[in-house]
Amino acid sequence: MAALLEINGLDKSFGEQRVLRNINLEVERGEIFAIMGPSGAGKTTLLRILNLLEKPDTGSITLDGDTINGVQRNGRTATRQRISMVFQSPALFNDTVYNNVAYSLRVRRMDKHAIESKVSQSLALVGLEGYDNRWAKTLSGGEEQRIAFARAVVFEPDLLLLDEPTANLDPANVAKIEEVIRTINRELNTTIIIATHHMNQVRRLADRVGMLLGGELIETGRREVVFGGAADERTRAFIEGEMVC
Amino acid sequence: MNSAEFIVQGIITAIELIVGLDPYILSITGVSLKVSGTATLLAALTAIPLSFIISHREFWGKQTLLTLINTGMGLPPVFVGLFVFIMLVPAGPLGFLKLIFTPKAMIIAQYILVTPIITGVSLAAINAVPPAIRENAYTLGGSHRDIAVVVLKEAKFGMVTSVLAGFGRAIAEVGAILIVGGNIAYTGSVGAMGEGLSYTRTLTTAITSETSSGDISVAIALGLILITINLSVNAAASMLQRRA
Known about the structure:
The structure holds two protein chains of two kinds. Chain A is an alpha/beta fold. Chain A is built from nine helices and ten strands.
């Protein structure tokens, strides 16, 4: 498979604190790549840089061969329209489910009938058909997060970034969300990067994994290889549930 | 007549004036609503875009502007009245406009009083929108304009509350409009009590003059109307705050 995303020499500091150090990574088209690591390792910052919410200090990011960091305003909008992100908190708009999911299509000035069809497909994808007219803020936490997924993938992005998407959910809803992630990956062939510190989730979802520790990507590899015997002892310790820093 | 009878009689006469749609009372209420409504509308048209710009843009003098807005929220009305008076009197820099002692002068004074209030409350409503909402709108491909629309929709109840708060301040204000409006009513025998029609006389300035001249029932009638308007505005604001 060809690499959809390439990151080379990425560094990021906030003031004196260096959050990411010389990140080099390739993510292949259609795979689920898990970035694992303890809290504060830099997972969220890396995803926010990939989604252009933060600017890296140095380094380059290419999506499908196009450099996406450092481009001008119009270019940024075009790039963001190829990448989507689901955050830990769904942060749905105070509106109906339909208007939440339709948002990204409306800002792309899509035809009304096409929007109706896409929204309907997207709600079916997350198992919430018929929720169109429900008020988003009245849904349960799990339903809200599934709507956040429907909203994020309705425009069929090339790359979907997930930042601890099940952090606040009970096991039943975690299972539902994981099924949604698999469905999106399988049916839409969307490349997915998920940041998580839940090892079981990584085992269940990921094709390949990367271990981020203290801002450094210390190891990457096939999930079964890394979980079968990681090359770095800190990765092994983290997988076994030990404190690493 | 003892004090209780005096008050009861005043209230009965006041209710008769209101129920009987006394032209003098109606004209004063009309001027109040027109002046305060226009001033609030113009202030909202200035304040809401301004609050959005302050919230979303960094520019030179932003802190000074915020200080001015915070100061403006507590401006003494008589000071504003004096300032507008000096500007608009024939000898003043804007005297050629011939606006002093007109409803337009009152609108200008109330606009100055109300704009900082609507700006301050709107700014608080916009800043209360969680950053995650903006980031989601951005992430989903929205342009700056699209994101602005999302934020304004999220803050809409707070925005309406700010406008209602501004109107509440304007309709209850007396000092500034008394100075620049002059509390003028045409003479004649129009109302049941023999008064004329209002030109720049509002509910608040009329209460002042009617009380001074001893027409307590007219003052009570005007007071009842004023308090009803204020209660309605505050009830609407409370309801919107609960929904927000």
